[in-house]
Amino acid sequence: MSGPARPEPGLSPERLAFFTDAIFAIAMTLLAVELGRPDEKELVSVRALGSFLVDRRNSYLAFALAFVLLWSVWRRHHELMDRIGGLSRAFTAWHAPFLLLVAFLPFPTAVIGTSIGNPLAQTLFAGTMAAMVFCEAVIKDIAGNSGLVTGDPAEIHRHAGASWGVGLWFVLSIGAAWLFPYAFVLWFVAPLAATYGGALISRLRTSPAGHPDLRNGDRPRT
Amino acid sequence: MSGPARPEPGLSPERLAFFTDAIFAIAMTLLAVELGRPDEKELVSVRALGSFLVDRRNSYLAFALAFVLLWSVWRRHHELMDRIGGLSRAFTAWHAPFLLLVAFLPFPTAVIGTSIGNPLAQTLFAGTMAAMVFCEAVIKDIAGNSGLVTGDPAEIHRHAGASWGVGLWFVLSIGAAWLFPYAFVLWFVAPLAATYGGALISRLRTSPAGHPDLRNGDRPRT
Amino acid sequence: MSGPARPEPGLSPERLAFFTDAIFAIAMTLLAVELGRPDEKELVSVRALGSFLVDRRNSYLAFALAFVLLWSVWRRHHELMDRIGGLSRAFTAWHAPFLLLVAFLPFPTAVIGTSIGNPLAQTLFAGTMAAMVFCEAVIKDIAGNSGLVTGDPAEIHRHAGASWGVGLWFVLSIGAAWLFPYAFVLWFVAPLAATYGGALISRLRTSPAGHPDLRNGDRPRT
Amino acid sequence: MSGPARPEPGLSPERLAFFTDAIFAIAMTLLAVELGRPDEKELVSVRALGSFLVDRRNSYLAFALAFVLLWSVWRRHHELMDRIGGLSRAFTAWHAPFLLLVAFLPFPTAVIGTSIGNPLAQTLFAGTMAAMVFCEAVIKDIAGNSGLVTGDPAEIHRHAGASWGVGLWFVLSIGAAWLFPYAFVLWFVAPLAATYGGALISRLRTSPAGHPDLRNGDRPRT
User: Fold this and answer.
1) In chain B, what residues touch C63 (CB-CB under 8 Å)?
2) What are the chain C neighbours of D44 within 8 Å (beta carbons)?
3) How confident is the model at residue B208 (pLDDT cuts 50, 70, 90)?
4) Where is the signal peptide (chains A, B, C, D) (predicted)?
5) Predicted confidence (pLDDT) per residue in A106-121, tens digit
């Protein structure tokens, strides 16, 4: 609309950015709907309401955790879209599984809110997060490989490396969940995985053996 | 707002596109709210949660199917709006039943998620999808006939033909649902109906007998 | 943003239009969430699901009715905003009760969907609609009186007259609800009230006795 | 996009404003979903529905109160963003707890709607509101201190003072809730706290002892 060439129909970045924002905002607000409402008996006195709230403390923690995780994924998507000059079919198509997992997240959040100690519940939550962040990483790599970015593609690949790092961290936490009941604390330090794991992955990928340009076949450029 | 002539009040494409996006995003995110949450007894152990999740596998499949179907309808609407230079009253009015059916879809999705084998449940879902896609086809034909498109109207009519093809495919699946319990697998190959059925329908319509210009009377042009 | 003078902070029309769109889209999509989902027993056979759907036919009708009513109010708001060049404090403030009633509408819709024959249920629905449409009429009159419109203020006042007509029609239907069980059919012909009642009200108001400029004191102009 | 210098990736004000709008609109519309729907027995007669509605009068009041409070916070955010020329990392980051509390508000609203007389319920609601308004105040102070505003930073600090005033008012109401059952009436006069308390706080802060520039360390300027 404001660029020199009008984008191909269906490939205007503004509308995809808007749609992504809407899905994130709705999913994040629906997280609070999952929180169990007290019934009349649990509201009859300060003590009754107090013990209701204390009993459900894990669901408030799960709400806050999922909200902050989705917020940080949204922020990274915001940064990505601000570097993008146009869309490709593959870039757009990978938003379908990405947003499906965002919309799905309230379900595993409700599950861990009720039974954080259950390893299968932790697997469900960490698996959804890992798959979501892997989709994010693929989207970034496609942007870097297809010449969609306005700046330096190497920077996008570094960001993709950070996303791969966060995703692997969640996969790792799945393994830990079956060994230790408190493995979920690993989720709170996921940002460290972005910083340290991301730097490691980026170094591995820029070495000849793992050249990122060889991965996604959507209009690659050297 | 940015074109040479300001559109008539109520006919600015941006706001209709935005409203459509919002309805789609909300309906797609609400699909996940339909998924039954496990109660405390079903969360007590890995085995209990595991059998809960396996029991409900159809509702996760229904969620993913409805999400992907709505995503593809939204993508086609995005492409349509990028070809549109203005709105007509009829074009806008047909969005009311179209969006009503989008908003309604979480209901049949919940129904098939619980009883996919029930032919009436399949009829409800496929009927809603067929009606939604027929509305989409009418909207495209109106755009082509009313001179709203900026490019070649014949291309919009080809797209409308693909939509009619997908809609007829869903109608066909209703008939099949009463004969075979697994007729719903037809829904997963609906994109093929767009490609092959759409080409067939477009050929039939461009023959003299089924000329598309004779259909919708909203400012037709030759 | 695009006009010659930047609007006063908090009075940019785009963001108010957007916020209104979002509230309408969410309320309209949530209408479908109100529809009772069948439980497993009601899904066991075609007959069971069929009688479930037939029993609830009123709630599907109520969903469609409320969706179409909200759509038409949204369309009129879209037309209004396309005629507006700026906002005033009063114009914006009246959106608070207006949008509150839009957000509230799913509640009376659920109530009439379950007991359309109950006169109090009809009163609740028609009263919410009447109050919403009266707010719409006040907003239009403020726009006309405060010089916010880019075209002819008299046209906005005619539109306001139509809104007052629709609102009075809903008030009238409340009276009828206590006399006849099927008074709700009056709601389906509300558009006629806009056309005929609106013309009548506009004529009364432009006569010296009911001059519209004397009503809302927010920067009146002659 | 329209300014002379393109903002740094992830720091375009439009998308943050949009995201904030979406969260507010969804939270405000979901408030009405909290309202308990009458079951069939409560709909059987005018008397039954009447006593149902009268019994729940507090939840309608809570809905209207929370809607109006969120509306006024949204309006102030709208005014703030219209004064902003760019974003900083701290300004954006403080939106995470701010919007988390907005999304959370439907939960305490449901709680006070059922048991307004319970002091712990009032504490939960007033505490959420206080924390939300404090976040708003911090966001405004950051905007003033970091040179993000296009006009006079002193005006933003006066607005921040009003927000601190409203927040303190809610904190005060928590204390009152444990002494008087009707302390919640203080919430209805919160706007007075913005006017009078805000003026007081602004005067205290501009005195040498409480200089606002010493507070937030995000790119301070004199």
Assistant:
1) 104
2) 115
3) low
4) none
5) 999 999 998 888 999 9
User: For C16-69, what is each residue's pLDDT tens digit?
Assistant: 999 999 999 999 999 998 898 888 888 888 999 999 999 999 999 999 999 999
Radius of gyration of chain B (CA): 20
- Between vectors from CA A54 to CA A53 and to CA A60, what angle results, nearest 5°? 65
> Strand, coil or helix: what is D184?
helix
How sure is the predictor about B209, in pLDDT bands with cuts at 50, 70 and 90?
very low
Residues 6+ apart with CB under 8 A from A30: A106, B29, B30, B32, B33, D26, D30
User: Does any CB of chain B come closer than 8 Å to the CB of residue A10?
Assistant: yes
Query: Minimal Cα distance from C56: which residue of D?
Result: D40
* Residue of B100, B106, B119 lying closest to C67 (CB–CB): B100
For C76, the closest chain B residue by CA position comes to B10
* Angle between helical axes of D13-30 and C13-30 (0-180°, round to 10): 40
Distances from the Cα of D138 to the Cα of B19, D156, D160, angstroms? 33, 11, 7
Residue D116 pLDDT more than 60?
A: yes
Burial of A88 (0-12, 13-18, 19+ CB in 10 A): buried
CB A68 within 8 A of CB B71: no
Residues A145/A220, Cβ–Cβ less than 8 Å? yes
Q: Locate tokens 């959804």: which residue?
A: A128
Q: What number of C-beta contacts closer than 8 Å exist between B and C?
A: 94
Provide the H-helix boundaries in chain D.
13-30, 46-55, 57-82, 89-93, 95-104, 106-114, 119-145, 153-177, 190-192, 198-206
What is the complex's ipTM, to 2 decimals?
0.87
Contacts of D53 in chain C (CB under 8 A): 120, 124
Q: Among all chains, which residue has been given the structure tokens 């949450």?
A: B37
Classified as helix, coil or strand, A149 is strand
Q: Which residues of D touch C29 (CB under 8 A)?
A: none
Cβ-nearest to C29 among B103, B120, B121: B103
Whether C110 contacts chain D with CB within 8 A: yes
Instruction: Supply B28's token pair.
Output: 């797609």
Which residues on neighbouring strands pair with residue D84, listed in sequence order? D149
B137, two tokens:
């086809």
Closest chain B residue by Cα to residue A28 = B29
DSSP-derived 3-state class of residue A35: coil
Q: What is the pTM of this model?
A: 0.90
B77-128 pLDDT, tens digit per residue, is: 998 998 888 888 899 999 999 999 999 999 999 999 988 889 999 999 999 9
Query: What are the extents of the domains in chain A?
Result: 13-207
Nearest residue to A128 (alpha-carbon basis) of A45, A76, A187, A194: A187
Cβ contact B32–A114 (<8 Å): no
| pLDDT tens sequence across A145-172 | 888 888 788 888 888 988 999 999 999 9
For residue C100, what are its two tokens?
């509150």
Name the 3-class secondary structure at B44. Answer: coil
Cα four-point dihedral sign A53, A58, A62, A64: positive
Is the CB of residue D83 less than 8 Å away from at least one CB of chain C? yes
| pLDDT beyond 60 at D140 | yes
**Angle, vertex CA D172, rays to CA D166 and CA D178, nearest 5:** 145
In chain B, residues with a C-beta closer than 8 Å to the C-beta of A7 are 82
Q: What is the mean pLDDT of residues C197-209?
A: 73
From the list B18, B32, B80, which residue is nearest A103 (CB)? Answer: B32
Q: Does D115 touch chain A (CB under 8 A)?
A: yes
Give residue B1's pLDDT.
39
* Chain C: closest CA distance from residue B153 (Å): 27
Q: Give the pLDDT band (50/70/90) at residue B141.
A: very high
Contacts of B117 (CB under 8 A, 6+ apart): B181
Cβ neighbour number for residue C78 with a 10 Å cutoff? 21
